[in-house]
Amino acid sequence: MNTSVTNTARLLGAGLRALLVLTLVTGVLYPLAVTGVAQGLFPGRANGSEVEANGRVVGSSLIGQAYNLPLKKGQETPAPDLKWFQGRPQNGLGSNSVNTQYELILSGATNRSADNAELVQWIEDAKAAVVKDNSVPGHPVRPSDVPADAVTSSGSGLDPDISPAYAELQAHRVAERNGLPADRVQRLVDEHTEGRTLGFMGEPRVNVLELNIALGKLTAAGR
């Protein structure tokens, strides 16, 4: 009886010591070490890849944002603010979940097949809107000009980047809305076009948030 109690107490003591040691190592020392290394070597990424404008954080370069007009009375879906470059459709064209405005409540894709009738209709509607919104006098947009990323969301629904083709398609509309020369806006797109990672991974891309920050500075300077 005494031996059994002694053994139990010894096992409980060993387990408690192991718990304390592992808690210290994995719950305190390891997180501190990883945080220290990350802050020392990659402070920007460790802090969420924050993007600043006018002295304040306005977002992350890893998460897309919406550029919409304020909701009007009786309006359920906000209209895009066409003086800004627009990103990809939000989370499956905003019909997949509660995350309809990049609110970060939930991330995900539509999970619909390519021949799904509802998805096909969403894409057709989105393409018609892109053609209508971006056609300006002297520079009409044809349905065949619309790239895939202009009418489809990414797998997460939070993609911060668009293709150079989609950015270039919007350039004339953005220039007209802001009273800027089209060639200057196009040059802005070129300046913010990133190539493939390491020269071979992924596709060329344009970060919409960073592009719009530069556009805001250009517009302010032109006034």
From TrEMBL:
Source taxon at top rank: Bacteria
Any Gene Ontology CC annotation: plasma membrane
Main location (coarse class): membrane
Keyword set includes Ligase: no
Subcellular location field: Cell membrane
Subunit structure: The system is composed of three essential subunits: KdpA, KdpB and KdpC.
Pfam families: KdpC
Keyword field: ATP-binding, Cell membrane, Ion transport, Membrane, Nucleotide-binding, Potassium, Potassium transport, Transmembrane, Transmembrane helix, Transport
Entry similarity comment: Belongs to the KdpC family.
InterPro entries referenced in this protein's UniProt entry, alphabetically: KdpC
Taxonomic source organism: Streptomyces parvulus
UniProt name for this protein: Potassium-transporting ATPase KdpC subunit
NCBIfam families with a match to the protein in the record: kdpC, PRK13994.1
Function: Part of the high-affinity ATP-driven potassium transport (or Kdp) system, which catalyzes the hydrolysis of ATP coupled with the electrogenic transport of potassium into the cytoplasm. This subunit acts as a catalytic chaperone that increases the ATP-binding affinity of the ATP-hydrolyzing subunit KdpB by the formation of a transient KdpB/KdpC/ATP ternary complex.
Bilayer disposition of the protein: Single-pass membrane protein
Record-level Gene Ontology MF annotations: ATP binding; P-type potassium transmembrane transporter activity
